[in-house]
Amino acid sequence: MDLHCIEMLEELEKLISGGKKSLMSGRVSVDKDELLTVIDELKGILPDELLQADNFYKESRDIRENAERDADEIIDQANREANDIIDKAQSDAEAIIADANNEADAIIRDANEQQASLVAEHRITQLATDRGNEIVNQANERAAEIRRATKSYLNDKLDFVADALIKTYDEIQKNKGTL
How far is residue 150's CA from residue 171's CA, in Å, rounded to a whole number? Predict the structure, then answer.
């Protein structure tokens, strides 16, 4: 006998209790009390394992619903943490970029000033021009290096966020697998 049998018996009981009476008598096709007695006896002889299985099913359904609720909370928390990490990385990156741009601008200003100073000297005009160009090139290379380092830093931060999200996702999948 399967678990569905209990539900069928309960439905039968409802149908008999609420069934239409025949026009000629207060009975359905079988005497109502007799049929209900037979159903009660049938329920009484059902194996305990069947009743335990029904209880287990209801408990497992409750556990699954709780687990789904917990998983949703974990996902929400992970999303909040990921957004916080992304916001922090964005803020750090913007500060680094601003510092790098300021440093690059200062280097270029210094280079231009040095170049102008060297050009002003009559005896070493050509040397000053060459040296000024070299300083400007070095400044541009330094600025490019700072920008590359900033991009690398941002990539590392975003990789960290991605790893955190993957780990959170894997944990959720593992928890779902245990349901």
Answer: 32
Name the amino acid, one letter, at 114. Answer: Q
- Alpha-carbon distances of 69 from 60, 64, 168, rounded to whole Å: 14, 9, 16
In the predicted structure, residue 136 carries a pLDDT above the cut 80: yes
Measuring CA to CA, which residue among 37, 38, 36, 45 is closest to residue 16? Answer: 36
The set of residues, in sequence order, having a beta carbon less than 8 Å from that of 5 and lying 6+ positions away, is 46, 50
| Residue 111 CB burial class (10 angstroms; 0-12, 13-18, ≥19) | buried
pLDDT in tens, 95-131: 888 888 888 888 888 888 887 776 666 566 677 778 8
Query: And the tokens for 54?
Result: 């029904």
Phi, psi of 63 (to 5 degrees): -65, -45
**Contact between residue 150 and residue 100 where contact means Cβ atoms under 8 Å apart:** yes
Distances (CA, A) of 57 to 39, 54, 97: 23, 5, 58
Nearest Cα residue to 87 out of 39, 140, 158: 158
- Contact in structure between 9 and 42 (CB atoms under 8 Å): yes
- If one counts every other C-beta atom within 10 angstroms of the C-beta of residue 7, the result is 11
> pTM to 2 decimals?
0.39
**H or E element: which one contains 172?**
helix 125-177
